[in-house]
Recover the amino acids of this structure.
């Protein structure tokens, strides 16, 4: 995978290796299939808590010295067992929040007719920006800054950052020099997954991806899975 260009070496500082694991939260209790976005009040389901515990077990032996999460409940609840396993206080960073979306609070998914509603068309004119929500470039800026801050707090060790699917995928795409607009069904960022950025000094030199809780993730929610009517609504992530 492609590293991101960075500053020249500086008196050995770039020899410091820091790993920032960016985790997507676990499954959320959302029986009505709402795109919850940044709305408060959406918590992990029982399965989501099992996912969080699984990842905490997976990371228990790692050199984690800093744990930080988006302010949304589902991210905080996912991060809590990881912080507890390492005897750390859980930090919060507003920059890790879910992407803004005009369809927040509505259903918007496969087979629900959302794309046939004239009132929605004005929000769908530019998928490259995108026109229905927070610009991809803005997500890159805030996520890169949040990751850099976590790297600084855990320099020479490891950090765990809990965020949401779209911001995670967008910052990974930027680092790996892919276009930012994409097919949402092809994001490699399943529930409770880890996208791990390795820094040498202040440069990202590699990106890894793992799914410690893969066996707990419903098949239709795995990356690349075929959409299933009634089960693939854009719940927010």
């Amino acid at each position: 995978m492609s590293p991101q260009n960075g500053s020249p070496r500086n008196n050995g500082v770039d020899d410091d290796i820091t790993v920032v694991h960016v985790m997507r939260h676990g499954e959320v209790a959302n029986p009505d299939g709402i795109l919850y976005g940044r709305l408060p009040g959406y918590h992990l389901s029982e399965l989501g808590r099992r996912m969080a515990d699984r990842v905490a077990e997976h990371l228990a032996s790692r050199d984690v010295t800093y744990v930080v999460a988006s302010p949304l409940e589902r991210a905080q609840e996912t991060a809590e067992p990881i912080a507890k396993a390492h005897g750390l206080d859980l930090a919060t960073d507003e920059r890790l929040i879910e992407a803004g979306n005009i369809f927040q609070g509505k259903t918007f998914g496969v087979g629900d007719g959302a794309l046939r509603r004239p009132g929605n068309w004005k929000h769908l004119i530019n998928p490259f920006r995108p026109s229905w929500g927070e610009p991809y470039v803005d997500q890159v800026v805030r996520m890169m800054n949040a990751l850099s801050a976590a790297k600084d707090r855990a320099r020479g060790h490891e950090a765990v950052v809990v965020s949401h699917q779209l911001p995670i995928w967008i910052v990974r795409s930027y680092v790996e020099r892919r276009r930012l607009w994409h097919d949402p069904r092809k994001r490699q960022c399943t529930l409770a997954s880890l996208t791990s950025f390795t820094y040498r000094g202040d440069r990202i030199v590699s990106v890894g991806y793992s799914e410690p809780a893969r066996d707990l993730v419903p098949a239709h929610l795995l990356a690349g899975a075929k959409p299933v009517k009634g089960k693939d609504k854009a719940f927010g992530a």
Notes: The mean pLDDT is 85. Helices lie at 46-59, 73-85, 118-121, 136-153, 165-175.
